[in-house]
Amino acid sequence: MKFIDTHCHPYLIKTKDENECIQNFTKAGGEFFVSIWVDIETSNTSIKLANKYDFGRSSIWIHPCDVYDFDVAESIKYLEELYLKNKDKVVAIWETGLDYYWMEKDADKLISSIKDNEKKDALKTKYIAEKKELQKIFFRAQILLAKTYNLPLIIHNRDAKHDVLDVLKQENYQNFIMHCFAEDLGFAEKCLGFAPNCMISFSWIVTFKNAKAIQETAQKIPLKNIIIETDSPYLTPTPHRGKEENEPAFTQFVLKKIQELRSENPEEVESQILENSKKIFKIS
């Protein structure tokens, strides 16, 4: 079995030694991994890890939940400098996109002490609109950076799928990956209708018994549009869920599940997904 973990955080694994995890990965059939940093502070950690191994790669990004702490122009300048210093290892812009999950809760906390309901509603609406707009500004700026260097975008989408796709269409950028896909077949088809060569990345979620919509998507979209990931140490897949931290070697379980779901020969599924991963990241 051969595969690429297109999204992982090996440096965050606490219960296992880094060398052990990398050895497990290669023994299981891992050919390359893409190490993703979780914030500005860990950017160099991730890139150093990628530089440590011939088969390591990394990415650059500003997460949508972090944009409120940064200046957009300074951030993009920092990302560009980081990319130019590490062009042989940085293969994508990640984790960009939109995340609306916390906005309602954050807004409710902000206005909890206000008694006037009309005023509360107005402030909540204004707060959420401003937060969404700032995320979109950073998203568009990172799309422009991706265009400049022809890098794929790895898209983070949480409760924002329609706005994510609208921004991509408005900016007319089709070189992207839908990370940790957790939507239904209909949304996947909308993505592919706009960008026929984009990638839908499946993670641990596809192994769950109740993930019927995601499994249907993995079963029915074209095989040429599928890649796989762990998002380790998070989101441990079945059969290790609840027992230990996720690690890059567990990409094999995501691959096996997709092989079960597809009608093609399992070897064809393995080969095509490996080819897709190399193609999107320009790995030879």
Provide structural commentary.
This protein has 284 residues and is α/β, with parallel strands linked by helices. It has a single domain, classed as Alpha-Beta Barrel (TIM Barrel), CATH 3.20.20.140. Helices cover 47% and strands 15% of the residues. The chain has helices spanning 18-28, 43-52, 72-85, 103-110, 117-149, 161-171, 185-194, 212-220, 251-261, 266-281, and strands at residues 3-8, 30-35, 56-60, 90-99, 153-158, 176-178, 199-202, 226-228. The chain has an 8-stranded parallel β-sheet. Helix 3 (72-85) runs parallel beside helix 5. It is globular and about 60 Å long. 42% of the residues are buried.
Please count the beta strands (DSSP E, at least 2 residues each).
8
Low-confidence stretches: none
Rg (CA only): 19 Å
Q: At CATH's second level, what is the architecture?
A: Alpha-Beta Barrel
Tally of individual helices: 10
- The CATH topology is given as TIM Barrel
Structural class: alpha/beta
Helix content: 40-55%
Mean pLDDT: 92
Strand order, biggest sheet?
Answer: 1-2-3-4-5-6-7-8
Structure keywords:
alpha/beta; eight-stranded parallel beta sheet; globular
Compact summary:
This protein is an alpha/beta fold.
Detail the topology: elements first, then pairings.
Layout: E1 3-8, H1 18-28, E2 30-35, H2 43-52, E3 56-60, H3 72-85, E4 90-99, H4 103-110, H5 117-149, E5 153-158, H6 161-171, E6 176-178, H7 185-194, E7 199-202, H8 212-220, E8 226-228, H9 251-261, H10 266-281
Parallel strand pairs: 1-2, 2-3, 3-4, 4-5, 5-6, 6-7, 7-8
